[in-house]
Design a protein that fits this description.
Blueprint (H helix, E strand, L loop, with lengths): L1 E4 L6 H10 L3 E4 L2 H11 L6 H15 L11 H34 L13 H9 L3 H6 L2 H11 L9 H21 L5 H36 L15 H9 L8 H8 L7 E2 L2 E2 L11 H14 L4 H13 L4 H22 L15 H11 L4 H8 L5 H13 L1
Parallel strand pairs: 1-2
Antiparallel strand pairs: 3-4
Helix pairs in contact: 2-3, 4-9, 4-10, 5-9, 7-8, 10-12, 12-14, 13-14
């Protein structure tokens, strides 16, 4: 017996678990696939009965592409949920940062250049307490210096010219703001709004720290040797995310199966005996995983000479732009992930003669001999004009 279902929220999970325990093969299909087939089989009806018939017909339309659903074990499921929560908090921090910048550029235009970095602890303290220019001007310079020194941390020294210059710049920015707006902006209400936004950012940052600590513990429970972190570009943040999304690597038959799961393969376009290579990547796979692979590839191509050769060949010889080349590097990086998890052996970084090297040596080798020339990189950023636009510009030039 085979059961076919859509992933409706998380309500599919207990049903799939019960069915698998009863010996039933469970197949979970994308809602997009069901929607496309429903348009063909039941164009003018969207009911539960129609959807049930469509789901029942799906195996006959693509049995080779329908794999039984894998119910992950508790550690893998925990990693998947916690890393997803971390991404959600990170997105909320990014939204709050954009919101704060918009408010600063509207109400205090000269303050943006004065702030010591985006969303540092010192910047958050200034925005929380000192956004009102009247309050800044009313403070004594010594009081302002003590406030800044109390909240400075990390790369910001707590004394010396940095604090004194910052206090002077804050007062200058406050004068410019008052000269620009006067009483046209209610800075008291604005301070209240910004303080709440800062409080949210700090709360999400604390949540992220707790989530990272817990995901690290679960990752060590699954893979005590931290094998994924032996691959350049994969660190303590991306490794738990990749493990959580992939789950048990042995459920993939081959590296091609893994690529299909991740969505890192081009759309096939072949008609009339003519193949059209160079198509876009398929819009499938887990978005968090693809983003992690893309981020890791951008770091790995600066360390791993073999990946640097791939990136350079695509940029210099084949005329691809940066994002296209990075997607190809991410594909090669996926090969390394599959090999490391499948064999249980750490990745060994090698030079072009296959001699083992360290990360520092690899980074130096890539920088000295395999980097993309700056003129090539700039030329790839320029998009050529469409033929119609070229004709229009030519006619306008002739008339002139």
């Amino acid at each position: 017996m085979t059961a076919v279902m859509e992933p409706t929220g998380m309500s599919w999970f207990p049903v799939a678990t019960w069915l698998k325990q009863s010996g039933v093969t469970v197949i979970r299909v994308k809602g997009q696939r069901v929607k496309a087939l429903r348009k063909y089989l039941s164009e003018h009806a969207k009911t539960d009965t129609a959807d049930a018939h469509v789901l029942g017909a799906l195996p006959g339309f693509g049995t080779r592409n329908l794999d039984p659903v894998i119910v992950p074990s508790a550690p893998y499921q925990g990693l998947q949920r916690l890393t997803k929560q971390r991404n959600r908090y990170q997105a909320q921090i990014g939204a709050s940062r954009r919101r704060l910048l918009d408010l600063i550029r509207w109400a205090c235009p000269s303050l943006e250049a004065v702030l010591p970095g985006p969303l540092t602890q010192l910047t958050l303290a200034i925005l929380e307490k000192l956004l009102d220019p009247r309050k800044v001007l009313a403070m004594r310079s010594s009081t302002l210096v003590r406030f800044l020194a109390r909240h400075a941390s990390g790369d910001h020294p707590q004394s010396g010219p940095f604090i004194a210059t910052l206090a002077q710049n804050l007062k200058s920015a406050a004068k410019e703001t008052l000269a620009l707006y006067g009483d046209h902006v209610d800075f008291t209400a604005l301070q209240c709004e910004v303080a709440q936004e800062v409080e949210h950012v700090r709360l999400w940052q604390r949540h992220i720290e707790v989530l990272e600590q817990r995901t690290t513990e679960i990752s060590r429970q699954i893979h005590p040797d931290n094998l994924l972190q032996s691959i350049p570009g994969i660190g303590p943040v991306l490794a738990p995310l990749i493990l959580g999304v992939l789950g048990d690597i042995h459920r993939f038959r081959s590296v091609d199966h893994l690529r299909g799961f991740c969505g890192l393969f081009p759309v096939c376009s072949s008609s009339g005996g003519v193949d059209r290579p160079g198509q876009r990547l398929a819009q499938s796979g887990n978005n968090r995983l693809k983003c992690a692979l893309y981020t890791a590839a951008d770091v790995a191509r600066k360390i791993d000479p073999e990946l640097a050769v791939v990136y350079r060949r695509l940029m210099v010889d084949k005329g691809h732009h940066h994002k296209q080349a990075l997607c190809a590097v991410a594909n090669r990086l996926l090969n390394r992930i599959y090999h490391v998890l499948k064999t249980g052996q750490p990745y060994v970084l090698r030079d072009l003669d296959h001699n083992p090297i360290s990360f520092q040596e690899g980074k130096r080798l890539v920088k000295d001999t395999l980097s993309v020339p700056q003129e090539v990189r700039e030329s790839r950023r320029k998009h050529p004009l469409a033929p119609g636009m070229k004709t229009t510009i030519k006619k306008m030039t002739q008339k002139t």
